[in-house]
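User: Hey, my collaborator sent me this sequence without any context and asked if I could get a structure. I don't really work with proteins. Can you help?
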Amino acid sequence: MAVHLVRHAKAGVRRQWVGPDDQRPLTKPGLRQADALVALLGDRPVSRILSSPYLRCVQSVTPLADHLGIEIEPDSRLAEGARLTDAFCLVEDLLAQGVEAVLCSHGDVIPEVLVRLEGRGVELVSDEWSVKKGSTWTIEADAEGDITRAVHHPPPS
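Assistant: No problem. I've predicted the 3D structure and written it out in structure-token form, which is a compact way to encode the shape of the chain:
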């Protein structure tokens, strides 16, 4: 079983966006990255999709949710600026419950989760330790829910 931690796809430039930041949408390349997530995770036994409530995160997992017929669950523990403890506990809880899930979050949350995993001795498998927009980390667990490794999938080109 696994939890797939997705960094939201490419969104417009923050300083050029005139509305509230939580409403900043994906760009055309970002929408293509969101569509490509279906090829990466569409055949996995995902039963839940949780997302930061920010529009760019929800848009990033919408094609996958549509493909799998799953509702997206907005979750503030994945929002920009969320406390590390909350996001990390969410990952651990899902794995302990045996739930295969996709979580979409931000560039400040995901690295903190990975650093905590690494600090606990979890192997991070990657050609490039990165959390680029549109990338995914698959956090794998054994049958008891113990995290065994995290595998990086670079963003689609």
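In plain terms: The mean pLDDT is 94. You can pass these tokens on to your collaborator as they are.
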